[in-house]
Amino acid sequence: MHRGPYRSVHRAAGAAVALALVAGGLAGCSKDGPEGTLEDFVAGWKAGDLSKVGFVGADGGKIAAPAVLEQIKAVSGDLARQPLTVTAEGEPQTRGDDATSALKLDWKLPGDVAWSYQSTVRLTKQNSDGWRVVWEPSVLHNDLTNGDKFQVTRLPADRASILDSAGKPIVSPRPVIMIGVEPQKVTDLAKLRAGLATEFKKIGVTVDTANLADRIKNAQPQSFLELITLREPDYNKIRPGLRALNGTAFIKEDRPLAPSRVFARALLGTVDAATAEDLEKNPQTLVQGDTVGHGGLQQKYDTALRGTPGVSVTISGGTDGDEADSTGQEESVPKALFMTDPVAGKPIKTTLDVQTQNAADQALAAEKQPSSLVAIKISDSSVLAVANGPDGGGVNTALTGQVAPGSTFKAISTYGILQKKAATADSVVACPKTAVVGGRQFKNSHDMALGNVPFHVDFAKSCNTAFVGLAPKLGADGLRTAAEAVGLGGRWDLGVEAFSGKLSPADSPTELAAATFGQGATAVSPLAMAGATAAIARGQFKQPKLVLDPAPAAPAADGAALDQASVTALRKMMREVVTSGTATALRGVPGGAVFGKTGTAEFSEATEDTHSWFIGYQGDVAFAVMVQKGGAGSEAAVPIVSRFLTNLAK
């Protein structure tokens, strides 16, 4: 069977109602002359009330106004609920008892596409009845005849990809398997549920089937009741077992996906079928079956990525007289009236590096507590990886978290101390077991007391009380200046939501003492600390960059060069943390020398739990790791760094 060039896939349904049916009988004549009748017709069409207008058909027989409204709605077809403006073009051309007039019709098609054209309306004078409108489908369009109607076909646009630093798609169509149940095939529900649980457990997936009995009861026998969608490689691991279960059904399709299920998931977001809420918010641009970005970059840049669907308007219901099916009957062939081509989405270019992102995701995979890792290329401040665990994370804590930095902040305050010459790396700075400021007692981890030792030893061993003692010499201004020099607390624009830090006011001796070693009111994200670490390694702050195209509107300006002598000394102290301090577990990692600082961050007086931190750099890569409730920096964060750098060196 031959089919026309367009076929309706999704029927349009707009919010504005252009036509409405009203009650009424046969209308009498309106104003004298065809001009008045035409005016009443256009006004009544707009208002959905044609009671002031008289109508006849092409055969001259009278037609009731409500019937005309019904026929207008029927002929409008898929456009019946789309906004329409009708305007009379000029004066009617009269010849005896007949007149014609041009009408201008302006439709607002789905997607806010405008379609304008002219049609012709005929009028006739019938003795004492006066002028009447001749109703025929061609009033809506000159090509419409009896039995015809408008048909709208939506032409989907190709969704664009999110690109990595090499310009290659991160997200691209990849095969998935929708796993479900077909009610009519279920023979033993209890056995089916047990079998599903066993198979899904093999790949570490849990699927809730508690309400499956009700779903089966309320569904059609041949329905497909979806349970879960798996990437094809994951599905293949349990394929034989699943297919052996009576009642299972499967649908294979391609979906836009990243290289792995956890790959920068909280940053990228997902592409899923449009929800009822999506459709309600975007009635002119989305229809049932569309895919939409949810969360992360996919949602933020959804409009650009999704592109613009095309739309075609055709006439359906009639015949062209030239086609016939096998029985000799004429076949309906839609006639094209109007079309806009779909415009493919525009890719979003990022700085993500696939190898680095994979190494980061794999490094977090073994950590059960919520964790984050951000890696930045020191030479140009490109964000190479944004990882959240476990399982990819639902919240992008790596970029938006707001937590105390703990002793990792000592790298910043040490820069301020060195720059202000409050101490040198070799200055003897006492490290007592405790220190009291304003009635508040500060102590070291594990009740450590080093006594009088060089400042670089205090730093390497992470002595809190040494920094408490130096806090008055650094001062609130010195602390803020040092933090701002490495970009903390600035206005950043990466093209995605990000937190650059909030600095403590350090407005009391106690708050200043706490803030100097990363407690108090200071809050940062892993991104902020990775950016600060990159600034130390580079010798200048450059705002981290993530989205390259479209370019962010207002990225932060580059900072001034850091004090050379101070930052050089600080780097040596960060190296000592690894060689003989709190991060000696990193001494033997592949890839070269590691520089860094551990951190243990208290976050609530109601618990002894602490966040585990490590900031550091190796070669051209700076990074920050944070594990929520992970304990000391050496306990959770350092092992993650070890796995990350080992993976990166492979």
UniProtKB/TrEMBL annotation:
Domain (Penicillin-binding protein dimerisation): residue spans on this chain: 155-313
Compartments in which it is found: Membrane
Entry's Gene Ontology cellular component terms: plasma membrane
InterPro entries: Beta-lactam/transpept (IPR050515), Beta-lactam/transpept-like (IPR012338), MecA_N (IPR007887), PBP_dimer (IPR005311), PBP_dimer_sf (IPR036138), PCN-bd_Tpept (IPR001460)
Entry-linked SUPFAM superfamilies: beta-lactamase/transpeptidase-like (SSF56601), Penicillin binding protein dimerisation domain (SSF56519)
Record keywords: Cell cycle, Cell division, Membrane
Biological processes, Gene Ontology terms: cell division; cell wall organization; response to antibiotic
Segments traversing the membrane: none
Keyword Cell division attached: yes
Domain of life: Bacteria
A GO molecular function held by the record: peptidoglycan L,D-transpeptidase activity
Record domain NTF2-like N-terminal transpeptidase: where: 34-147
Domain Penicillin-binding protein transpeptidase: 373-645
Alphabetical list of PANTHER family matching this protein: PENICILLIN-BINDING PROTEIN 4B, PEPTIDOGLYCAN D,D-TRANSPEPTIDASE
Family of this protein: Belongs to the transpeptidase family.
Protein name listed in UniProt: Cell division protein FtsI/penicillin-binding protein 2
Organism, as annotated: Paractinoplanes abujensis
